[in-house]
């Protein structure tokens, strides 16, 4: 072989090697990004029309793929038999708008493309069978979910219930909601129009008020302040200054009590029963913002439930003493949601141990093999067991002889805390109630948030508006 031919042969071989290397790089390293590229309509068509596994709660189907009539553009269509009831958890699976909720967080498992299903995909390829997605089994209790939705009714708000000892989310309802089927249909134009209508709705039905937004928690945050007080040496019997009006430090602003707390002193226990603003503002100022912030973080203030698009609760960064006083009663720049307030009650009920909330119990392959199972995991020790038990007693007193009497249930130990959070002059206050309940060695926690109760402003209150909703959920679970 002469020299020129040899050079051409070497160059040709080098080009073939480069081509193979480039192809290998695309397959191995760029496949996921190319598949995820929104301009890759071929992949999108294949994924959208493919079979996805079901999302279930016990024996109740929340999301399923149905075969379409022969000749349709897509082989399968996603539908949600329970309509808007479980939308905050399932989310939607849309052609143009992507996916949200569990449809997004577990998309690879549902589509059958997860690495955990590699062997199954290989077998399907060899046998020529269409890939089968995995089933996502949630922790939700259908009875509790239905009870929460019915009790909340047409009011704007949300409800979360969880198992205090495991962290399993038993109910997650947001109102108003939407039917994910309208966004997941194979009629792309109609689905797009439905999405546009929901997006423009002033009541924000696409918003997950249970975990995806944060709001002023009002007096329910006094549980965090009370926990910080107990952890810093106070007792339920400790007397706290409770003037009828408190002039906030460095200001001329006077903070009043919304209930009859007298004009002197109350024990910490009685101040919680009566929800005395001035008492807890004084406690917060005495403890300082760092103590409150640290206590809030121990209760999960930096936690996000990513499966359903959750967001973290907020505590102000550098409040002055006056702002710290307002923060101690759940105002100023403190913000939370029903998930976080349920976590507070759950940790108190569980002797101070806060468990990591989770909404998916098991992911199963088509042959029912468990691909993954969530095991209960401790998130933090929010407070000592002894102090948690003292705070449990204080919360029980709130329900038995304080501001939360509407949550009383015969034969069930219920402890709770009401809250009414001021917003703006043109909006009614938010009504809150968070509680734990115990019966037959089972402990659950519930939080209710009512954004708009459709009642006169003067009648909005945690005991009147939110506590009866929590009671209905507790009764459904226990």
Shape: elongated
User: Superfamily at the CATH H level of the domain at 218-477?
Assistant: DD-peptidase/beta-lactamase superfamily
CATH architecture of the domain at 218-477: 3-Layer(aba) Sandwich
- Point out poorly predicted stretches: none
Enter the CATH topology name of the domain at 218-477.
Answer: Beta-lactamase
CATH class of the domain at 218-477: Alpha Beta
Q: What proportion of the residues is helical, as a percent range?
A: 25-40%
From the alpha carbons, calculate the radius of gyration and give it in angstroms: 27 Å
Biggest sheet details: 6 strands, mixed
Quaternary state of this entry equals single chain
The chain-level mean pLDDT equals: 89
What does this molecule look like?
There is one protein chain. The protein is α+β, with helices and mostly antiparallel strands. It has a domain at 218-477: Beta-lactamase (3-Layer(aba) Sandwich). The chain is built from 17 helices and 19 strands. A six-stranded mixed beta sheet has the order 3-2-1-6-14-15, with no helix packed on it. Strands 8-7-19-18-17 form a five-stranded antiparallel beta sheet, with helices on both faces. A two-stranded antiparallel sheet has the order 4-5. α8 runs antiparallel to α17 (462-477), α10 (222-231) packs across α13 and α11 crosses α16.
Brief descriptors of the model:
478 residues, alpha+beta, Beta-lactamase, 17 helices
Q: Summed up, what is this model?
A:
The protein has 478 residues and is of the alpha+beta class. Helices cover 38% and strands 21% of the residues. The protein has a domain at 218-477: DD-peptidase/beta-lactamase superfamily (Beta-lactamase), CATH 3.40.710.
């Amino acid at each position: 072989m002469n020299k020129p031919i040899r050079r051409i042969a070497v160059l040709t071989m080098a080009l073939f090697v480069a081509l193979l290397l480039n192809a290998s790089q695309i397959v191995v390293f760029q496949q996921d990004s190319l598949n995820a590229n929104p301009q890759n309509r071929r992949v999108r068509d294949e994924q959208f029309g493919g079979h996805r596994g079901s999302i279930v709660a016990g024996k109740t189907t929340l999301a399923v793929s149905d075969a379409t009539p022969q000749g349709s553009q897509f082989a399968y269509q996603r539908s949600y038999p329970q309509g808007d009831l479980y939308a905050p958890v399932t989310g939607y699976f849309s052609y143009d708008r992507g996916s949200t909720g569990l449809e997004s967080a577990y998309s690879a498992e549902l589509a059958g493309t997860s690495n955990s299903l590699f062997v199954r995909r290989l077998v399907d390829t060899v046998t020529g069978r269409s890939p089968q997605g995995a089933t996502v089994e949630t922790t939700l209790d259908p009875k509790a979910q239905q009870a929460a939705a019915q009790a909340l009714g047409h009011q704007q708000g949300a409800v979360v219930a969880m198992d205090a000892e495991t962290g399993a989310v038993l109910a997650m309802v947001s109102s108003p909601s939407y039917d994910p089927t309208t966004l997941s249909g194979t009629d792309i134009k109609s689905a797009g129009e439905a999405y546009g209508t929901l997006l423009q709705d002033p009541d924000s039905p696409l918003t997950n008020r249970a975990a995806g937004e944060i709001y002023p928690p009002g007096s329910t945050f006094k549980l965090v302040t009370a926990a910080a007080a107990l952890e810093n040496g106070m007792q339920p019997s400790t007397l706290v200054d409770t003037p009828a009006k408190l002039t906030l430090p460095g200001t001329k602003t006077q903070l009043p009590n919304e209930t009859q707390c007298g004009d002197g002193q109350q024990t910490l226990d009685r101040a919680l029963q009566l929800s005395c603003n001035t008492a807890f503002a004084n406690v917060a100022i005495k403890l300082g913002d760092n103590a409150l912030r640290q206590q809030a973080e121990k209760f999960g203030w930096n936690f996000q439930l990513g499966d359903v698009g959750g967001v973290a609760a907020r505590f102000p960064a550098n409040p002055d003493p006056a702002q710290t006083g307002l923060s101690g009663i759940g105002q100023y720049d403190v913000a939370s949601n029903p998930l976080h307030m349920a976590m507070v009650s759950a940790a108190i009920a569980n002797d101070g141990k806060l468990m990591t909330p989770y909404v998916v119990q098991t992911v199963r392959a088509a042959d029912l093999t468990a691909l993954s199972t969530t095991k209960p995991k401790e998130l933090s020790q929010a407070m000592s067991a002894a102090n948690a038990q003292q705070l449990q007693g204080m919360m029980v007193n709130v329900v038995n002889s304080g501001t939360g009497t509407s949550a009383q249930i015969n034969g069930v130990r219920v402890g709770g805390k009401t809250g009414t959070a001021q917003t703006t002059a043109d909006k009614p206050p938010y009504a809150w109630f968070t509680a734990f309940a115990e019966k037959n060695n089972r402990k659950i926690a519930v939080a209710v948030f009512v954004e708009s109760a459709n009642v006169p402003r003067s009648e909005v209150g945690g005991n009147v508006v939110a506590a009866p909703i929590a009671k209905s959920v507790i009764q459904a679970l226990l």
